Amino acid sequence: QVQLVESGGGLVQAGDSLRLSCAASGRTYAMGWFRQAPGKEREFAADITMSTGNTYYADSVKGRFTISRDNAKNTVYLQMNSLKPDDTAVYYCAASPRSGGPHATYDYWGQGTQVTVSS
Fold first, then answer.
1. What pLDDT is attached to residue 104?
2. Rounded mean pLDDT of 83-106?
3. What confidence score (pLDDT) does residue 2 get?
4. What confidence tens digit (pLDDT) does each residue in 40-74 have?
5. How far is CA 107 from CA 25, 33, 41, 90, in A?
């Protein structure tokens, strides 16, 4: 069982930056970020394979968001730049013990952290 603790959400203005952090209680194959906007389904944003550093991004965040990891701390980060009101959502950290990428099975989930971008 892997526990995930997110931090770093908040209220910012359009064009601002924000960094999310997610600390895992143990090692996992991949860690990622998903988000769920009001009235919408949860969607994949980005993930990273912990051993290789390989990353995947949704088209909606590519070029603006950067995912990185610190293996010594079992922690991943999501640097979000040029934020838009459409980025407003609850952001969830997730961990996959077997594979990475947007179609992997993520078995472990954090509680979520709210990101609100005002126009």
1. 87
2. 93
3. 93
4. 999 999 999 999 999 999 999 999 999 999 999 99
5. 14, 13, 18, 18
Q: Pairing between strand 4-7 and 18-24?
A: antiparallel
CB 74 within 8 A of CB 106: no
Q: What is the token pair recorded at 99? A: 């594979």
- Secondary structure letter of residue 86 according to DSSP: G
Share of the chain above pLDDT 90, in %: 93
Q: Choose among 18, 16, 13: nearest CA to 91.
A: 18
C-alpha distances (whole Å) from 116 to each of 40, 56, 74, 94 are 15, 23, 26, 20
DSSP string, 13-71: ETT--EEEEEEESS--SEEEEEEE-TTS--EEEEEEETTT--EEE-TTTTTTEEEEEEG
Residue 100 and residue 83: Cα distance in Å, rounded? 25
Helix/strand/coil for 2 = coil
Sign of CA dihedral 110, 77, 47, 26: negative
